[in-house]
User: Which sequence fits this backbone?
């Protein structure tokens, strides 16, 4: 398979986006205002299974990946693999650094948590938007939504997406994860930001 300059740019954008999603997510977890629905669910399950976030994320993604292969391989790309493997382990790495170098009360102050939250949330949303805008494959968690939507075409896609995310939030909540302001902001801000970033990315890829 040959890669042109445009393809190489797209792969670079995906790798950078996935790394920045993991980096910013590690801060969102630490400030404890909530995360995206998928991460909230995975944090809760990983805690109860006594696995690292990265290890559980890979295991779940492998299960979902097999479902995606069976029902809609068009959702799979290089970005799918990067998302499956790198985000969770990037989070694990930076959480390990936090434990190693930061005092236990580093994020105990509300003002500090808010100051960290704002850039971390902004970075995560933009990175997620870049990842989706480049269109090099869909994360397994998101691909399942498209598969369900294609099977039940009479049900609005937005309703399926909301139900999927709310189910993940409920699982996370029941297992002790924080469902907070960040979770709501992800739901409402990600769509408009993706549209804006996609327009800019298309210009850069020309």
Assistant:
């Amino acid at each position: 398979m040959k890669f042109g300059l445009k393809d190489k740019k797209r792969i670079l954008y995906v790798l950078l986006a996935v790394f920045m999603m993991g980096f910013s997510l590690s801060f969102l977890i630490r400030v404890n205002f909530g995360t995206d629905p998928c991460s909230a669910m995975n944090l809760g399950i990983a805690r109860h299974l006594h696995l690292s976030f990265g290890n559980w994320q890979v295991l779940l993604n492998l299960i979902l990946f097999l479902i995606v292969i069976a029902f809609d391989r068009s959702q799979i790309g290089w970005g799918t693999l990067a998302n499956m493997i790198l985000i969770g382990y990037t989070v694990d790495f930076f959480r390990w650094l936090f434990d190693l170098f930061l005092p236990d009360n580093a994020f105990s102050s509300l003002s500090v948590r808010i100051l960290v939250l704002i850039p971390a949330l902004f970075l995560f949303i933009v990175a997620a938007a870049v990842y989706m805008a480049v269109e090099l494959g869909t994360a397994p968690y998101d691909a399942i939504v498209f598969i369900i939507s294609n099977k039940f075409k009479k049900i609005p896609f937005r309703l399926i997406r909301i139900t999927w995310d709310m189910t993940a939030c409920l699982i996370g909540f029941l297992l002790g994860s924080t469902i907070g302001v960040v979770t709501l902001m992800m739901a409402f801000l990600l769509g408009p930001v993706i549209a804006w970033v996609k327009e800019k990315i298309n210009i850069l890829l020309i």
